[in-house]
């Protein structure tokens, strides 16, 4: 006996819709509580026959996948963005959604997402955690600069304010009020605290990077540092899941949206789908790649075409090309060759 279950799961309630092997609905039930109740119900169903469960990817989708797989069920995780394209409707609730998921599952039409291992998910989460710490530190630095500007005090340019000499200069400034001095003191304490946290997280990421030979391989690309290399490997996870190297551009959100109809092909803004951290790191690495690699610089200039307004477009094109090169390197295990011909072969 085969069972197909569409599961609409939330933190407080979960709705499951169960179909039999002919696609006939057996039951639709809403359970109150955490994950334990739907898992207990599905455990009982799995004991009766072959069970396949489908739910949308959301927060905690990996942990739920592992718990469902432990029941002996086949688990299919659906891409929520693509499901919205399939089921555009004005009637939407948990029971309807669970039924639609069950129907798609029975028809084998679920747009699936890749579910990485526990270790890879933890690696990704640590990468994202470091990114958020960096953003917090940037906000603190901006607050300190804002404090100085509001008092008419001109600070050193660039990173000079955050060097030892700049820090000493900042602490020595005579601020006119006790409130301003308190803000400076607390902001500097936040800066020290965040700096220590970032060092600890970075040390752990360096340790994890040392366990993955692909990180050192990707760092052979000019402009690609350890943070970009580790993020690329963590998010790609399995290079073989991309049928073609060019698919990495869509995954990273580095391709334009498209509206092609009636012989007219309109390209819009970037889709910006996929992991934002990976996309941001690839773009940052692209600036360095253009500066360090003649092949990337030539490609950048070719796309720019001598028009300054096309520099942003050209940079995204470089990021897309860089991603294709990196994926090809992981797939084939080849080292980057710093010349035009080597670049083209790696990207093919």
- Content of β-strand: 5-15%
> Over all CA atoms, what is the radius of gyration?
25 Å
Overall mean pLDDT stands at: 90
* N- to C-terminal distance: 47 Å
- Side by side, the strands of the main sheet go 3-2-1-4-5
In total, the number of strands is: 7
General form? globular
Number of domains: 3
Could you explain the architecture of this structure?
The protein has 348 residues and is α/β, with parallel strands linked by helices. It has 14 helices and seven strands. The strands form two sheets. The chain has a five-stranded mixed beta sheet with strand order 3-2-1-4-5. A two-stranded antiparallel ribbon has the order 6-7.
Spell out the key features of this protein.
348 residues; alpha/beta; Nucleotidyltransferase, domain 5; 3 domains; 7 strands; 56% helix
Task: Please render the helix and strand layout as text.
Layout: E1 2-9, E2 13-19, E3 25-32, H1 36-46, E4 50-56, H2 61-69, E5 74-78, H3 80-86, H4 94-107, H5 118-150, H6 164-172, H7 178-210, H8 213-218, H9 226-236, H10 247-251, E6 256-261, E7 264-270, H11 276-292, H12 294-304, H13 311-332, H14 340-347
Parallel strand pairs: 1-4, 4-5
Antiparallel strand pairs: 1-2, 2-3, 6-7
Helix pairs in contact: 5-7, 5-9, 9-11, 11-12, 11-13, 12-13, 13-14
């Amino acid at each position: 006996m085969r069972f197909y279950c569409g599961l609409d799961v939330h933190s407080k309630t979960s709705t499951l819709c169960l179909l039999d092997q002919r696609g006939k609905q057996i039951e639709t039930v809403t359970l109150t509580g955490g994950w334990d109740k739907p898992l207990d119900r599905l455990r009982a169903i799995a004991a009766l026959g072959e069970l396949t469960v489908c739910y949308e990817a959301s927060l905690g989708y990996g942990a739920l996948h592992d718990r469902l797989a432990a029941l002996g069920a086949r688990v299919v995780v659906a891409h929520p963005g693509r499901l919205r394209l399939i089921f555009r409707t004005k009637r939407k609730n948990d029971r309807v959604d669970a039924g639609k998921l069950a129907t798609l599952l029975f028809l084998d039409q679920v747009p699936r997402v890749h579910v990485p291992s526990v270790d890879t998910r933890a690696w990704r989460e640590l990468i994202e955690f470091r990114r958020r710490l960096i953003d917090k530190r940037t906000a603190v630095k901006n607050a300190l600069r804002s404090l100085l500007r509001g008092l008419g005090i001109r600070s050193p340019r660039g990173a000079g304010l955050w060097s030892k000499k700049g820090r000493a200069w900042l602490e020595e400034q005579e601020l006119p009020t006790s409130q301003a001095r308190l803000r400076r003191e607390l902001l500097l304490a936040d800066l020290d605290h965040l700096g220590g946290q970032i060092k600890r997280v970075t040390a752990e990421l360096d340790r994890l990077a040392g366990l993955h030979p692909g990180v050192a391989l990707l760092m052979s690309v000019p402009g690609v540092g350890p943070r970009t290399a580790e993020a690329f490997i963590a998010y790609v996870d399995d290079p073989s899941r991309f049928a073609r190297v060019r698919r990495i551009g869509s995954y990273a959100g580095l391709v334009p949206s498209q509206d092609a109809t009636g012989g007219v092909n309109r390209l819009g803004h970037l889709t910006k789908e996929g992991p934002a951290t990976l996309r941001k790191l690839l773009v940052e690495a692209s600036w360095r790649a253009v500066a360090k690699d003649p092949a990337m610089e030539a490609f950048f200039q070719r796309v720019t075409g001598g028009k300054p307004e096309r520099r942003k477009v050209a940079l995204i094109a470089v990021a897309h090309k860089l991603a294709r090169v990196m994926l090809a390197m992981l797939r084939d295990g080849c080292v980057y060759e710093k010349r035009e011909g080597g670049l083209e072969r790696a990207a093919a």
